[in-house]
Predict the structure.
Amino acid sequence: MTPTLQQTEPTSSRDDRKAVVTLDSIVKEFGDVTAVDGVSIEVRDGEFFSIVGPSGCGKTTTLRMIAGFERPTRGRIHLEDEDVSQVPAYERDIGMVFQGYALFPHKTVGENVAFGLKMQGVPEEEREKRVADILSLVNLPGTEDRNPTELSGGQQQRVALARALVVEPSVLLLDEPLSNLDRKLREEMRFELKRIQNELGITTIYVTHDQEEAMSMSDRILVLNKGEMEQIGEPYEIYHGPSNQFVADFIGDINALPGTIVSKTDSQYTVELEDTGDEIDLPRSVAGRELQVDARVNVNVRPADSQLDTKLEEGISLQGTIEAINFLGKSANILIDVNGREFLVQANGRTAGGRYQPGDSVTVNWKTEASILLQES
Amino acid sequence: MSIKNKFDELNRTASVYFKREEGRLGLLEILPGITLITILLGGSLGIVLLYSFLDPAPVSAESTFTLQHYREFFETGFYLSVLLDSFIIAVITTAAALALGYPAAYYLTIMDSKWKSLYLLLMILPFWINVVVRTYAWRLILGSNGLINYLLVDITGVINSPLDLLYSKSAIAIGLVHVFLPFMVIPIYISLNNVDRSGIEAAKNLGANKLVAFSEITFPQSLPGVAAGVLLVFVMSFGAFVTPSLLGGQQNIMIGNIIGQMFNELQSWGLGGAISVIFIALVVTIVYLFNRQIGLDELYGSGGDA
């Protein structure tokens, strides 16, 4: 499959900043397995850049190549203006936070954090001061003499972050740093990480399988699948303008209705839906790229963009029967059977929550421009 | 990987012992073993202790309490010099086993997992062969008509007359290193295997090259295994019996052989008992001091220097 990439157009001044990390057609093969297949990215100064994808998509391998733990089979890695493709990990000016924190269990918190400074030959007095400062930044002041094993997961996480940041690297790499924390702590740490990243203005590359986490923190996101790039873009763009069906499915919930393009004009496509036989007209703007007549497509719509029994000026309506209602308080997830296909509507909890029962006949509506028309993959 | 699992299990058992985590259930579990050891070992040691203060021993109608055996031990320089020789041989054996065993354990740790179980098997395979057979093999290698002298004198002609390799303290040390090497390798391997690989990567990420990452991260975390291996090899070679009697000859004997002679050949159970008691007390003291110095319990807990 050839990925279609939608690079973010330079829209803000942020994009004029220089590239700090540049990957140029990186390929990594392990024996017969191609883990990373032609990844090219430019991460700009101060940017929070996320790499997301399902497990085994090559995101961690990509990060490990940037850190220098793996050598790319082909392609080049630049750190600022220097080609670091063959530079060993310990000579790269890069900080990294590992998934399991990787704290040194035989060293105290202070010794852990001071390690990088010690390697740089920073005198002890200055070392102590900088360790104390960075521990304050991560909200763990005065913990120098504690053993990392005595700390909670969230605290160990902060120590690992402090240890990576204290040497003031030009890039910070984070490998699924929140995946070992419980849900509540994870959400707190998102804000915390973002706060620290903002405060230091450090270029950050963040790897996660959690697309929500990536969207909440990132300036830009790269979606990887089977080692290949699917899309790069800002969170909003990735969510509302996925460039292909994989990205649409991976980033958030989506309803995909299969169909065929029966005709097209200069301004719109007409799609015949497979399940209902309905023909719907969609403006060309909802398709990421030019589609041909007879092409197999999916008409996608986000559950949150869908409504029930609403009169819309420019909308699409389908008839269905309610299968199940999952009331969540502020919202209600309502599962609807549309001619044998399940369709999820995320309705307002107050207006829709108490109004419907399973078995009710309803009309599903969404605004035409909320449709995402993608070629079937 | 059943062998590896076995080792891990042994390691866990050992760490529980070293940390003195004696829960009520744990006590119940070790009760049968404790009982057996108390009766068998305690009983026999008690008899040895008793005999060391009796003259004549074993117990008879004329037996009286005496310190004569202990006096004899300290007044006869021979026994002290054998004890000192044994100590030196044990230290050399331990040092050599550590020097040979650490790299082997390290290699086992980092090697491709496909071959790991085979190499671990090879490591303990010698245990399946009787120690007397294995030690006799060294006589065939080191003897005046042995392999080495055959190569040096008969084949290459580097020297004219065979070297006296057998019946020396070096021969004993070589034999002991061979027999006890696995007891050094296995605990170190277990310790190294427990070192978090990403910790080593973290050190490299922070600017440590391979050598520094090893000395700062890997090596300190392997110290519990080193301590266990050193202790095991030292204690076992200090009290060795078979190897020195086969490779040391008449001139080079160790304290274990003296004790054996006292009981078996000379029927001096009293003096034999006294030497045993002194030897055991010395070993216990050394182990205690070693433990206090190295602090096996503390190794995981507290940090090194920074």
Residues 6-13 of chain A have pLDDT under 50 and may be disordered.
